[in-house]
Amino acid sequence: MIRARTLNLGVALLALVVGACSSVPPIRYFTLVPAPGTETAAAPAAQSFQFELLPVAVPAQVDQPQLVVRQGGQGVAVLQGQRWIAPLGDEVRGALSADLTRDFHALDVTSLPAQGKAAVRIKVDVRRFDSVPASYAYIDAAWSVRPLKGGDPLACTSRISETVGEGYDALVQGHQLAIARLAGQIGIVAGALANGQATSCPAS
What angle do CA 10, 13, 19 make, to 5 degrees? Predict the structure, then answer.
């Protein structure tokens, strides 16, 4: 009789554990890298070039596997069920590289031979990466472009905000659009410097 009660108790506990596990919502993963075939209009002054893109720094507050969103004036929330597929700095770098390659017909030659063509080195530090669901996605970045064949770097800043709709998909898409705009600003400068032309920072 005691063995039967013990067995029944074990079965009941197992059922509770299985039920609890099945009620946990699945983790969703997001990427900032645009899907292949995503097209945007290249800037009229766009010039092709080769570039090296250094690792991108992001603020420690948002350098988490989970999405970190603002709540109110001072609050933040770490979303355990909404995560980046890769470290946030890698995601931003991958998105910038993809956008530059797509919109400027540029070539990311990081760790590869430059094949004798003019090239530039790009450095990006993201100082703010704010996410407010159903409101906006905001990026504040300091960046510089240096011709690899010599010359002084041009250092610039960009502050870009994108209005977003409801849901985390819309929030991530807003950051994708903000990064695409940042890549557009960087690409104009990089293309000019790579081709030996004078240029200046775009209006932020």
Answer: 140
SS3 162: strand
The DSSP output letter for 40 is: -
pLDDT score of 44: 57
Q: CB neighbours of 21 closer than 8 A, spacing ≥ 6?
A: none
Residues found in the chain? 204
* Closest C-alpha to 196, from 158, 143, 148: 148
Contact between 89 and 63 (Cβ < 8 Å): yes
With residues binned 3-state (H G I as helix, E B as strand, rest as coil), the percentages for the chain, rounded to 5, are: 30, 30, 35
Q: Say which residue the tokens 């704010």 belong to.
A: 130
Q: Classify residue 13 as exposed, middle or buried by CB count within 10 Å of its CB (0-12, 13-18, 19+).
A: exposed
Tens digit of pLDDT for each residue in 133-164? 999 999 999 999 999 887 789 999 999 999 99
Give the DSSP H or E segment for 36.
none
Q: In what order do the strands lie in the sheet with 28-30?
A: 28-30, 75-84, 66-71
Band (pLDDT 50/70/90 cuts) for residue 64 is very high
Instruction: Give the pTM.
Output: 0.84
Average pLDDT, the chain: 86
* Nearest CA among 55, 107, 117, 111 for reference residue 86: 55
